[in-house]
Sequence to fold (198 residues):
Amino acid sequence: MTAALLMIDVQNDFCPGGALAVADGDAVVPLINAMQGDFPLVVATQDWHPADHASFAANHAGAEPFSTTEMPYGTQVLWPVHCVQGSAGARFHDGLAMDRTALVVRKGYNPAIDSYSAFFENDRETPTGLSGYLRDKGVTALTMAGLATDFCVAYSALDARRLGFDVTVVRDACRAIDMEGSLAAMTTQMREAGVVLG
Fold:
């Protein structure tokens, strides 16, 4: 086993009608489902925030969603409340095939720090444990798809490259938030890091 598919945050709150909906987000579901049979290992990530999470604008007096604040680990976007633990919004999209999923990595559950990447919290130091799991399985190459291209997908891809994995991002099976040019910026970063953009 050398290759794995990483399905990133295909959750109700990131799909149309959700609290942090990504435009056309549900369009990735059939594409990701069709890809799963090509991989011996399928892993999913799941945003899993406590209601008092520090990245929620509602937990900062007077703060508007999509504004920013400074955290000990750097600049943090303040998001609408989304993917709260146990909520309908945190569930995977009903259409996403999960029967071949070997592992679900829940991230963002520490109330003091956000976690875009599947591999590290936003301090870029605290690991989720996914890297060790993949190494134990003999995985050297990762294909990524999901939501959103310019945040959780891109951060996961960059960290995976930093850890020495070969990485392909299937852009057709991703959708972006694209906040103030974030898609172009993160696409450039991924390309410069050696991520294959399929």
